[in-house]
Amino acid sequence: MTGELSRSAMPGATGVVDEDLEAYETNYQTHRTGISTEECIQCYNKTAKKYEENLNPSRYRGYVIAAEAVETFYGQDKSARVLDVGAGTGFLGKELEKRGYTNIDALEPASEMLRLAAEKGVYRSLYCDVLGGSEVTIPDDTYDVLALSGSMGEGHIQCKGLAEMVRIVKPVRGNIIVSNGDCFLLLSPDQIPILVDD
Ligand SMILES: C[S@@+](CC[C@H](N)C(=O)[O-])C[C@H]1O[C@@H](n2cnc3c(N)ncnc32)[C@H](O)[C@@H]1O
After folding, report:
1. 2, 22 in Cβ contact below 8 A?
2. Is the C-beta atom of 92 inside 6 A of ligand 1?
3. Whole-number mean pLDDT of the chain?
4. Which of 21, 44, 125, 179 would bridge 105 by S-S if both were Cys, CB 3.0 to 4.6 A apart?
5. DSSP at 139
6. Which one Pfam family would you cite for this protein (predicted)?
7. CB 66 within 8 A of CB 152
8. Measured between alpha carbons, how far is 167 from 7 in angstroms, rounded to an integer?
């Protein structure tokens, strides 16, 4: 799967150092133009075991930024009900646990990623589901905060997922927090330039 694409064929890869290029390509392949939801989930299932090595803290800290934002809004309320949307292997859940949060659930469609997230022991409920397809099984107005790190983009959560997020977040004092590399948002034609903030 990796080694197929040259640096110039991958937007955003120009400044990537050689030793990071294979990891960059694995991540890029999951966001490539035209990728379907099913193909994206399959990619993550195949590469789940290497995910934390590929996106190690020297390369990726989207989940730290998301956790900081949760603290900005819920610094005084460590029992706030949080859904980690597109939880992957649980980087964000672990980061929130470190900061004292105790009431965290995970939603993640790639079963291999979710299995690794479950092993971290930080999530109360785990949902293996796609956000943005049919309605997920979570009732209306459930969460104080939905937190997403790196889970929007081509083949990932799309604009149409926003309506479902609004349905399950509490209407009063609820927040949806998105921490996402803007290059992945801008790669996708349907996607979310509207969310990209300079
Ligand atoms: C780059 S990973 C980020 C994982 C984790 N949030 C982190 O910060 O490490 C993107 C994750 O989004 C998930 N994902 C993709 N499409 C999704 C969808 N429609 N609904 C929910 N999660 C999705 C993928 O399976 C993958 O685990």
Report:
1. yes
2. yes
3. 90
4. 125
5. P
6. Methyltransf_25
7. no
8. 40
